[in-house]
Amino acid sequence: MKKSTATVIFTSLMMATSGAVIADGAATYQKACVACHMTGAAGAPKLEDKAAWAPRIAQGKDVLYNSVLNGKGAMPPKAGQAQLSDDEIKAAVDYIVSQAK
Fold first, then answer.
1. I need a surface site. Which of 1, 13, 50, 93 has the fewest CB within 10 A?
2. 3-state SS string over 49-70?
3. Model-wide pTM > 0.85
4. What are the chain's domains?
């Protein structure tokens, strides 16, 4: 019985944490990414353009994280939001990937 209770608690915590990361990622996206990724400004792939995101996603999240953390093309490091932590940037990337799949 105790094992089942622990499993339920662990699963609930993991689900809650996962939801919080997506929520934080969405908030960071709205703060730092939406201006370009909603409109396609400077060649940025639009948020829900699955065809544009597919080859980028195929390279893996570490490549995407690196692109945002260090800048790529017209996008400056951390999308010009130097005050954001690496974890906030990664959460925004995770959010974008979740929307583009």
1. 1
2. CHHHHHHHHHCCHHHHHHHHHH
3. no
4. 2-100 (1.10.760.10)
Q: Do you know the residue count of the chain?
A: 101
Taking only the tens of pLDDT, the chain with its 101 residues reads 455 544 334 334 444 444 555 569 999 999 999 999 999 999 999 998 999 999 999 999 999 999 999 999 999 999 999 999 999 999 999 999 999 98
CA atoms within 13 A on the CB side of 58: 6
Q: How many angstroms separate the CA atoms of 60 and 68, rounded?
A: 13
Sign of the Cα torsion 97, 41, 23, 31 reads positive
Which residues lie across from 75 on neighbouring strands?
72
Task: Give the span between the Cα atoms of 46 and 52, in whole angstroms.
Answer: 8
